[in-house]
Every structure is written in structure tokens, then in C-alpha cells.
Design brief:
single chain; 7-stranded mixed β-sheet; 6-stranded antiparallel β-sheet
Length: about 475
């Protein structure tokens, strides 16, 4: 029997958690009006089949799988009986409808599980709640559609949003303060055909994650980066796609540079972390407070260090260059696939190469890679095809035969992964690279190799070779 890699939610919800555990069955597909279920070997399911057909109105077809595999599926899809609610008589209905207890506990749970976002998604007959953990969404709760309106109103009240407005998107913030936990949540509501989809972004990280030494730099990369950010003026660019951890790197940098003798100004969209001693400005384009407009004012505020959340257009790029030329240290992010790609992107925005070569002191690219769960990862052999995909024809890796694959256990929520690590490509701009910027050269790989620069590919391969990540996480990085 071939089980699907991921059983659809609508199939899982055919059974309640209690029914799945009592029957020792996991539904995985529907065919010809029947529900296909995975069952336990040696168990007589004849009475169960009749009972399910009477209660639900649909017949079942049962195929057995090993007991340990069935237990894994039950834990994966029906892990907490109180978490998934598929019927009208739910244990949390009163709490959801009458107060903020459920919502407060949910936010606390998301914090404990290192989730970055909470998604509330209404559909025709139900609402599902998912947490984004290690970059992937994991379903935690399913509620009746009738309970969702009150829950959405609670969120909007806590975020100071207009509960009567359901036709337009809204944005707000919630301050979560329970015991020693105190952090902000960014709230975004989006009207859909079945109601408002709401996403809460947890704007918090544990304090130790804001230390540069803990982010994932290699020893040499950290030394190069630290030397660049210690300079009195110039521009440092962090590149990468959305969700690659660029903001965390910048905040960790500002935290290191924050001192009583310096004046640090930031313009951000949004302000994700609040740092004592740093003057942070929230972008408000609707009233004209853009990156460019803020930068013009910053130059009259006697700054030492300026941080722009992102260089989006030619005006912002020109102001960033001007700020670094006039004796300020400027940090910013830009969306490119590689560190050197930031040079081409700024040139496309109209920045003259001679200005860029005189201001850019370091560019870095980064990605976040999921780490295998150390409690359940399994060793496996690389096939000839996989070895070719990873190492190509490099004879240095002919002896590399093994790797680790994700398995799934209780501690990693049956994903096979637990935690993420940033990988970096750090390019300090020396005289030769500055000349390459001025000349507009694109073939700079030989120059990087001469300097022993570790690329994103090299960093990803090192994680793979050390058994920290999987082939599935590695291959997308190798194809960029």
C-alpha cells in the first residue's frame, strides 16, 4: 500500500481524534464513495466498519500497515486530542466564544514552539489555524465556522482594529504580556470570500539569537563582517529573498554597535524589534514618510549609523549612497539571489559604478536552512544520481557515500526537522573588488576564489556533509 506523502486535511477530518485513536484507523483517501483507511495488522475491523458506516454514512475500506507506522500516523495527524476540533461539540467552544483565554494560550503556544506566524483561515464550513514553524506551516487547530467570527473580533479588538470593517484589509499590533513574556505581534487582516483571513507575526526572538556569533557565520565570515561594521563610514548590504533572516542579521549588528557615544537612526517597514538606545522610525508611505524622505531628514539629525529596512527604488538607492559618502555607516537590505548581485541591482537603479565602488564596503547573501531533528534523523546511502546532483564530477567527494534523511518524531512534530540555521556568503570589498565594481565586471568568481570566499553553495554543502540538513533542503540551494 502506497500512502500519500501528506494526507489531505479534508480526509483527516472525516474522523475526530477520539474516533481515530479508538478505531486505530487513519483515513488517507476517498475512492468510489468509500474512505480508504490504514489499519493495524491482526485486528478484527468487521464491527468497526459497520459502526462507521452507520454513524457517518460512508463505507470504509481498510488496509493494514505495520503497527509502528500506524502509531506514527496517529501521532502526526491526531497528535493532541484537544488540538483538532472537527465537530460542533468542541471542548474549546465556550472559551473561544466568551473570552480571550484560547487566543492568549494559542499565542503562548506559538512562542514556546518558536513559531514565526499564526494563520487564521476561514473556509466554507470550518476555520483552520496553522503555525509557521521553521519556515513551514503546520496545522494545529480546526474550528467550526460558527466560532470564527467571535475569534476574529477578539483579535481585532486586541489590535485596535475596526471590527465593523470587513471589506478592506487592516493592519495593527498586539502587545502580548504574560509573566516574563513581553513581545509584539503584527496583525494583518485580508477579506476573502469566506471571511477575513488573519495572520499574526510574532515580532520576537530570544535575546541570544540577536548575537552575531550565534547566527551562523563561519569564523572567517564573522571576522570579515565584524571588521566591516566597525568602520566609521561606508555601506553594508545584506541580500536574500523574503524570510531569509536579513532583518535578524541587521538587528544583531545594531545591537553590537549600539553605544552611548553613537547616534543610530533606522527607517523600517515594519519595526520588528525594538532596541533601547536606537531611534527607530516606522515607514508610512500613505502620508509621504518614505525611505527617501526619512533619509533626507536623517542627514539633519547628526547620525553616526543609519539603517534602511530595504532599498526599493532609485531615490532610496541614491540617498543611501549620498549618506555613506558624507561620512555615515549605512546598512540596508536588497532582494537579489547572490551577494554580488546587489552591485548589478544598484547599477540597474541608476547608481553610478564609481560612486558604488567608493561606498560599498561589504555585501553578504544569506539563506535559512532547516536542520534535521537530531532525535529521529536516519542515515542513508547516496545513490549515483544523488551524488551527481550534489557533488557533480568532483573527485574529492567520490568517497562520500552517506547522508541523513528526515524521519519524524514527537519532538519535531513529525516533520523530520527542528530549528533553522543561517548560511552566509560574505564578500568584503577590497581594492581589487572595488575596481571590479567600478568597471562593472560580472565574472568575479575567479576573484572570489583567489580570496577563498565561501559561497552559499559551499556553506550549504558543509551543512549537508556534517549531517545537519537533508538532500531536500540542499538541492534548491544548489540550483540557484
Amino acid at each position: 500500500m502506497n500512502l500519500p506523502e501528506r494526507i489531505p486535511t479534508e480526509i483527516i477530518q472525516l474522523f475526530s481524534p477520539a474516533e481515530a485513536w479508538d478505531y486505530r484507523l487513519v483515513p488517507y483517501d476517498r475512492q468510489d464513495g468509500s474512505v480508504l483507511c490504514a489499519g493495524e495488522p491482526g485486528r478484527d475491523y468487521t464491527p468497526t466498519e459497520q459502526e462507521i458506516e452507520v454513524l457517518s454514512g460512508f463505507p470504509v475500506r481498510i488496509e493494514t500497515i505495520p503497527s509502528d507506522e500506524l502509531s506514527r500516523l496517529l501521532n502526526q495527524y491526531y497528535r493532541r486530542e484537544q488540538a483538532r476540533q472537527t465537530s460542533g461539540a468542541t471542548a474549546d467552544r465556550n472559551r473561544i466564544g466568551s473570552g480571550q483565554g484560547f487566543l492568549v494560550e494559542l499565542i503562548g503556544q506559538a512562542f514556546d514552539e518558536y513559531a514565526s506566524d499564526i494563520h487564521f483561515e476561514p473556509y466554507e464550513e470550518r476555520c483552520r489555524i496553522r503555525l509557521r514553524i521553521d519556515g513551514k506551516l503546520i496545522e494545529k487547530y480546526v474550528l467550526d465556522r460558527g466560532n470564527y467570527a467571535s475569534l476574529a473580533n477578539q483579535i481585532k479588538i486586541m489590535a485596535n482594529l475596526d471590527i465593523s470593517e470587513r471589506r478592506l484589509p487592516q493592519d495593527g499590533r498586539i502587545l502580548y504580556h504574560r509573566g516574563e513574556r513581553k513581545f509584539d505581534l503584527r496583525v494583518s487582516s485580508l477579506p476573502t470570500i469566506y471571511g477575513e483571513k488573519i495572520v499574526l507575526r510574532l515580532l520576537t526572538r530570544h535575546a541570544e539569537l540577536l548575537e552575531l556569533a550565534n547566527l551562523g557565520f563561519s569564523e572567517r565570515q564573522l571576522a570579515d563582517y565584524s571588521a566591516a561594521v566597525a568602520r566609521p563610514h561606508g555601506m553594508v548590504l545584506i541580500t536574500g529573498p523574503t524570510g531569509s533572516g536579513k532583518s535578524t542579521t541587521l538587528y544583531a549588528t545594531l545591537r553590537r554597535l549600539n553605544c552611548e557615544a553613537g547616534n543610530i537612526l533606522t527607517i523600517e517597514d515594519p519595526v520588528e524589534y525594538t532596541l533601547e538606545g536606537v531611534n527607530q522610525v516606522q515607514l508610512k508611505e500613505e502620508i509621504g514618510l518614505t525611505f527617501g524622505a526619512a533619509l533626507r531628514t536623517f542627514l539633519r539629525q547628526d547620525p553616526d549609523i543609519i539603517m534602511l529596512g530595504e532599498i526599493r527604488d532609485a531615490d532610496t538607492a541614491a540617498m543611501a549612497i549620498r549618506s555613506s559618502l558624507t561620512g555615515h555607516l549605512v546598512f540596508s537590505t536588497i532582494h537579489t539571489n547572490s551577494a554580488w548581485g546587489s552591485v548589478s541591482r544598484l547599477r540597474d537603479m541608476g547608481v553610478h559604478p564609481y560612486l558604488l565602488s567608493g561606498t560599498l564596503i561589504l555585501c553578504a547573501a544569506q539563506r535559512l536552512v532547516r536542520l534535521l531533528c537530531p532525535d529521529c534523523k536516519r542515515e542513508a546511502e547516496l545513490t549515483a544520481t544523488e551524488r551527481e546532483q550534489v557533488y557533480g564530477e568532483n573527485p574529492a567527494f567520490e568517497s562520500v557515500a552517506g547522508h541523513y534523511r528526515p524521519a519524524g518524531c514527537e519532538r519535531c512534530y513529525y516533520t523530520g526537522y527542528r530549528g533553522r540555521k543561517a548560511i552566509y556568503e560574505v564578500i568584503p570589498i577590497d581594492d581589487a573588488l572595488s575596481e571590479a565594481v567600478r568597471e562593472g565586471r560580472s565574472d568575479i568568481l575567479p576573484l572570489l576564489r583567489e580570496r577563498g570566499i565561501t559561497t552559499l553553495r559551499d556553506s550549504a554543502l558543509e551543512l549537508f556533509r556534517s549531517g545537519q540538513t537533508s538532500l531536500d533542503e540542499l538541492l534548491p540551494l544548489l540550483r540557484e
